[in-house]
């Protein structure tokens, strides 16, 4: 039974690591860096994931933080397969925010 619970925990961690959303990628005692995905036509500031990124910063800093800098972070490219068997290259863009707790 212990093996199954360990496998279940591993599976949850693995799946959550693949989820697209805001992530704290660099954590320091007094701040860090969060990144989140955005689409070019929407823009980084209007992206839905920005709210999640701001919530991560609020949680880390107890609602008191300053944004030091932000800008486009290194994204990733992946090959997506469609139903017909065709493949296309998908470019995923990311926005990064470096913040410091007050």
Shape: elongated
**Discrete helix count:** 2
The Cα radius of gyration reads 17 Å
Overall pLDDT metric = 80
Structural class: alpha+beta
Helix content: 25-40%
Beta-strand portion reads over 45%
N-C termini distance: 46 Å
Task: Please provide a written account of the structure.
This protein has a four-stranded antiparallel sheet with strand order 1-2-4-3, covered by helices on one side. 29% of the residues lie in helices and 45% in strands. It has one domain. It starts with a helix and ends with a strand. The radius of gyration is 17 Å and the shape is elongated. The protein has two helices and four strands, in the order H-E-E-H-E-E. By secondary structure, the chain is α+β, with helices and mostly antiparallel strands.
């Amino acid at each position: 039974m212990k093996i199954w619970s360990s496998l279940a925990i591993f599976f949850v961690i693995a799946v959550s690591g693949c989820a697209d959303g805001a992530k704290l990628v660099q954590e320091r005692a007094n701040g860090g860096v969060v990144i989140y995905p955005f689409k070019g036509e929407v823009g980084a500031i209007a992206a839905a994931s920005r709210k999640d990124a701001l919530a991560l910063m609020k949680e880390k800093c107890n609602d008191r933080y300053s944004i030091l800098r932000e800008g486009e972070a290194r994204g990733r490219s992946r090959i997506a397969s469609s139903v017909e068997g065709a493949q296309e290259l998908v470019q995923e863009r990311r926005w990064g925010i470096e913040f410091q707790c007050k």
